[in-house]
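During the practical work, I selected for study one protein's amino acid sequence and its backbone structure tokens, as given directly below:
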Amino acid sequence: MGDPITIALRFALYIDLILLFGLALFGLYSLKGQERISGVVFNFGSILLWAAVIGTLLSVAAMLQMAKVMSGASSFFELHQHILQMIVTSTDVGLTWMVRIAALLLVAVAAIFSKRAPTLSLILASVLGAIALSTLAWTGHGAMDEGLLRYVHFTSDIAHLLGAGGWLGALVAFVLLLRSKRLDGERRLRLLSRTLTGFESAGALIVISLAITGIANYVLIVGPEISGVMRSTYGLLLALKIVLFIGMLILAAANRFHLSPLLDRSLQTGSYAPAINALRRSIILEFAVAIAIVSLVAWFGTLSPEMDMAAE
């Protein structure tokens, strides 16, 4: 089993950066004109600023934890400056860490303009959020590869991370819309209906991307081996992730083909409480499943399949 503190920090960092990127991206492709202004639909100024600040603090904590583990120190107080300096300036993970910190600081700056220049603010936050999220690929299994395979693996990891960001960001946006009191009831529900419909194409592309890159990552990490892997902790966690992913797709299909059309029909009749309650339960459950998947990724990303299989 991996170090619990490392796993917890990885999980928190995944969630923070995924939501930073995903919510900013959602604001760009789902909201229009005045809807993008912070405070009209979502308080983008606070969301982006806090996500950037928390992401920076978590990144610092993760770097300190990595240095502690790599140096064998029993506490953070035993860490020497030269160890941190060596990791930050002389390793790929350290260099990408600096890129992440810079991107997050710039997101905080972009958040300041969320009312005066909302579209520009969201564009900058989406691009910088994508950069920050992509740097997490260097903390995964791809960092163990060499040559061309290393960059193929990084590309697959980055695509997987960005796909997850697009998916979870949309789920959180839908939950916020269902709970929002910024808009009157019918206007809010019509916006929810429109964004749900608009997400259909993007959601399909994200699912395809997640499936392809998920398979690619498995092959790049383990190879064609299946039976041996399934007897290891890594394999069991991966199998659980696949089961949860299938469950998430079933919930998404229910939203797409049943609950979203039900909401559209209820808006025409004016009796939309049952549709809203059903949609709320489904989306919250889908989000909970997605969070469970991210927690598994944070865990088995610290495991070595080869060592795990050998131990078995």
